[in-house]
Specification:
- By secondary structure, this protein is an alpha/beta fold.
- The protein folds into 2 domains: 233 residues, Serine Threonine Protein Phosphatase 5, Tetratricopeptide repeat; 143 residues, Glutaredoxin (3-Layer(aba) Sandwich), CATH 3.40.30.
- It contains 16 helices and 8 strands.
- The strands form 2 sheets. The chain has a 6-stranded mixed β-sheet with strand order 1-6-3-2-7-8.
- α5 runs antiparallel to α6, α8 crosses α10 and α9 crosses α10.
Length: 393
């Protein structure tokens, strides 16, 4: 924490010097720049506990800055900065009230910046209609050429995944249509994943999409690693399903289950964790499918020892023993009335064998023992697809 204290002291000195300026624009821009340059790298490189403390300090300094300024005395350029700081502080109505008049000015550069910020405000508020309006206005202001705004579109699209998937995908697609700088790799990583998982693409289309991403960004190690994982996911289709014979513990089952021993029937394997919201959200649908197709479909669940435990009602408990975690999981499964066999792997080998790089991860195994279909993270229409395939429709 010594480094943090030294940097924080230097920030306070700079802020104090800047406050002596009688020019509110200079004060805002100087102090905003100092706060950003000091806190951004610290927050990025801090551990979880330090990051929480740093964010609190960061917001305290932002609040001091905006509360000490009169926005009516600021230039239009500075008002955009002022509004963006208010947005950081989640003072969204105030931010919006400042930005809306600026989005109607004749100054094109200023109007474009205000519209981008308004899109961010609308996304944070979950106001889809306002977001669509500001997006259309930005598109018009740029004459349809969104190249300079590609990163912003990707950022907002990623953030809208749970609020409105159709809008999210439209923005992500538009952002991915333009070359993205290395500085946008975090946004690219997330946008690529959402497009692959939630984009409604068939597996052939997914392969074409990954090929395009590889051509454009295959020289960036983190992006390439993600593309390679997803190519492995697709390549798993049609292969012989591996066994669940790595070190682990079977629950609701006295003896280990062999995948080969189940040939002649369809088998659907759900890789899940109690701390995973999407796993929990799809659990009832998975159980219902198993009950409905019980005479034709065998259902299994796979989890693993993670070194911590959490569920809907239990905040994350870290540093627990494997035995404690296993007991907590047993209690959770009993509460959720999970009666099917559950394999709790002691390490990540089973997940690696089944290409489960994101959960929930579903593997449908055909009666001949080959992988017939896969689903990663979001179910969408996968259960209906499984039902149709198992019923021979």
């Amino acid at each position: 924490m010594k480094r943090i204290s030294v940097c924080f002291l230097s920030l306070m000195i700079l802020v104090g010097l800047s406050a002596c300026s009688g020019d509110p624009d200079a004060r805002l821009q100087n102090e905003w720049g100092h706060i950003q340059s000091e806190f951004t790298p610290l927050i990025k490189n801090a551990d979880r506990a330090q990051r929480r403390e740093l964010r609190e300090r960061y917001h305290e300094e932002l609040k001091k800055l905006v509360d000490g300024l009169d926005p009516s005395r600021l230039s239009n350029d500075s008002r955009v900065i002022y509004a963006e700081i208010l947005m950081e502080l989640e003072r969204l109505p105030e931010s919006e009230n400042i930005l809306i008049p600026l989005a109607s000015l004749e100054d094109k550069a200023l109007r474009i910046r205000a519209l981008k910020s308004l899109m961010r405000v609308s996304a944070r508020r979950g106001d889809v209609e306002s977001l669509k309006k500001h997006y259309a206005d930005l598109d018009s202001a740029l004459g349809g050429d969104m190249k300079s705004s590609a990163s912003v579109l990707l950022e907002i699209g990623n953030s809208m995944r749970d609020a409105d998937l159709d809008v999210a995908l439209e923005l992500i697609d538009r952002g991915l249509a333009y070359p993205l700088p290395v500085e946008a790799d975090d946004l690219l990583y997330t946008g690529l994943h959402i497009r692959f998982v939630d984009g409604g693409l068939g597996n052939r289309e997914r392969g074409v999409f990954l090929d395009r991403m590889a051509r454009e960004y295959g020289d960036r190690p983190r992006i390439k690693a993600q593309i390679d994982k997803k190519r492995g996911f697709l390549a798993f289709l049609g292969t012989e399903a591996p066994e669940l014979d790595t070190p682990g513990t079977w629950l609701n089952q006295d003896t280990p289950i062999g995948i080969k021993a189940l040939r002649g029937r369809y088998v659907l394997v759900d890789f899940f964790a109690s701390w995973c919201p999407d796993c929990r959200n799809s659990l009832d649908g998975f159980k219902q499918l198993g009950r409905k197709l019980g005479d034709r479909l065998e259902t299994l669940m796979v989890s693993r020892i993670y070194g911590f435990y959490a569920d809907e009602e239990t905040p994350a408990v870290r540093g627990i023993s494997a035995d404690d975690e296993l007991e907590r999981l047993k209690t959770y499964l009993k509460k959720k009335q999970v009666e099917m066999p559950v394999f709790v792997a002691h390490d990540e080998q089973a997940h690696t064998r089944f290409n489960a790089s994101a959960i929930p991860h579903y593997v449908l195994i055909a009666p001949d023992g080959t992988v017939a279909d896969l689903c990663m993270e979001r179910v969408h229409g996968f259960f209906s697809r499984v039902e149709a395939l198992v019923m021979g429709e």
